[in-house]
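Tokenise the fold.
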Amino acid sequence: MPDRVDKTMNSLKVLVVDDNIINQKVAVKMLERLHIPSDVAVNGLEAVEAFKKMRYDLILMDIQMPDMDGLEATRTIRSIERKEYHTTIIAITANAMQGDRERCLQAGMDDYLAKPIKQIDIDVMVEKWLSVKVPSMLKKIDDSDAALQTIIDPIRLKEIKEIGDDSLLRELLSLYLGDLNNFSQEVNAAQSENNYRRIYESAHTLKGSSANMGIESIRQACIQMEHQAKDQNSVKIAFQLTAMQETMEQIRILITAQLSVK
């Protein structure tokens, strides 16, 4: 990807692509809070035409739209994009399955957000991909670890900081991100093979990491998946994984935000 030149918020060019007017307004308002102007397209065809007329820094691309969906629009944009400039395209979708994420990346998208998107989702993506600092995100992270306390038991969070320091916390959060990614990949692969032992072992491993980090929501979900794997209940495992991936996506957003704070 070509190197980006740092920009101010109001100099950025963002395109919001969604056929749902409520979703459009929410995304536009979130960008406005960051003083980022945006254009709107209601489907993939409009997005491609807008791209031909304007060099955008970021495109928030819904996946399911009439006339031309987000995947096809992205492939078209990549085919006409000039090599010296890469437009960041973020998938916005109601689905949260690992396979959907991979299809988005294969189509040429750079990243992925599950609906409903939140302000911190936009904050993280803007800072991650556009090389600008987002004050609202930093404030959320700095206010007595308020964001982290929504996923990590406050007592455990305090214990981790007492054991070491902020650098230890960042290291553990980074490792936990890896555990989440490994878990999704392992369980998806094991499901295709009906390998219930592998599913059990994956859930058991993530249960231990989650307990150590004080992330109770995932620990409890892993306990349920262990039981489902023992019962070889593929239907319940599939439902459990979908629910877990929705939770894990929000955890990824918060951890990524924390790790971006220098």
In short: The two ends are 23 Å apart (CA to CA). Strands lie at 14-17, 38-41, 58-62, 88-93, 111-114.
